[in-house]
Amino acid sequence: MGKVRELPALGKKQVASNQLVTVGDLEDFKTELLLSIKHLLSEQRQPTGKKWLKTYEVKQLLGISPGTLQTLRNNGTLPFSKIGGIIYYNQEDIDRLLMDRQRKFLYNERNKRRA
């Protein structure tokens, strides 16, 4: 008889190298795989970040300099709240800014191709 190996997705079931895998085994594997994927996707949808970010976090997230962040605050592009000398930015405002810039970029790119 051949070596026995464990199939990770099937949990405790073991299959010998010379043993055939049945349709039922494949269906069990499919079910467990789909459940695992669904679980991973649901974890990804849950907000893992904070609602409010400090200046250093926003600079790091967007990859921008302090001066650029100051400009975004000054011209009203990125709303903020200031409490006791600490500036906070709402994560939803940052996401909205990124989505808005992406839409403008995609719109401009489409128009360039048509011209």
Secondary-structure map:
Layout lengths: L3 E3 L7 E3 L6 H23 L6 E3 H8 L3 H9 L6 E3 L2 E5 H24 L1
Antiparallel strand pairs: 1-2, 3-5, 4-5
Structure commentary:
By secondary structure, the chain is α+β, with helices and mostly antiparallel strands. The chain folds into two domains: 4-45, no CATH class; 52-114, no CATH class. Helix content is 56%, strand content 15%. The protein contains four helices and five strands; from the N terminus they run E-E-H-E-H-H-E-E-H. The protein has helices at 23-45, 55-62, 66-74, 91-114, and strands at 4-6, 14-16, 52-54, 81-83, 86-90. A three-stranded antiparallel beta sheet has the order 3-5-4. Strands 1-2 form a two-stranded antiparallel ribbon. A hairpin with a 7-residue loop joins strand 1 (4-6) and strand 2 (14-16). It is elongated.
Query: Which percent range describes the beta-strand content?
Result: 5-15%
Low-confidence stretches: none
Report the end-to-end length measured between terminal Cα atoms. Answer: 70 Å
Q: Overall mean pLDDT score?
A: 80
DSSP summary, beta strand count = 5
Question: Roughly how many Å is the radius of gyration?
Answer: 25 Å
Count of helices? 4
Largest β-sheet summary: 3 strands, antiparallel
Q: From N to C, what is the helix and strand string?
A: EEHEHHEEH
Secondary structure class reads alpha+beta
**Overall 3D geometry?**
elongated
The total number of structural domains is: 2
Identify the strand order in the major beta sheet: 3-5-4
User: What is the helix content?
Assistant: 55-70%
